[in-house]
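Hey, resending since the last one bounced:
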Amino acid sequence: MEKRISFEKVDYDRDLNRIHKWMNEEHVIPFWQLNHSIEKFMDHLRKALDDDHQTLYLGKLDDVPISYWEAYWVKGDVVEKCYEAETFDQGIHLLIGEPDYLGRGYALPFLEAMVSFQFQVAETKKVIAEPDIRNEKMIHVFEQCGFEPVKPIELPDKTGLLMFCHRDVFERRLKQYDRNSGKTETHS
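The structure tokens again:
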């Protein structure tokens, strides 16, 4: 039985406690470092939602929220100083928040769905990521999705691995997957 992946924009009132809980999970703390008190996290989430260069989403599996996503425009982000960013480059941050869904193979299909969504902007030719250089599991998932390591970069909160996913590589990879598996996946 196939499961349905969907994304819903974060709503402050509805999602604050859920996202705060996820930021305090053992597997999230080392890489996000947002395991603050609820009061401090309230301010962080409000600022993140008010930042017009990014959009926050919950990733849902059969309508059950299991992940948190920040889809952002590279222009206006601290990472734009780390390479020659093009106007329509987009970036992604993510976490699987619910521990029961870890290690079950959901990160890759969710990432593919979000990157497909980002490439719906015709002018976007590249989606970037900068996972913590210590996060080998996520780096592997990004590589499986078609992201290529570029270089380590120093960011205010971490040493990240700058990774690029070019539209043509991503689309070619998905077509190859569809031919090999004999099925076509749809993502909402």
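The chain has a mean pLDDT of 92.

Sorry for the duplicate.
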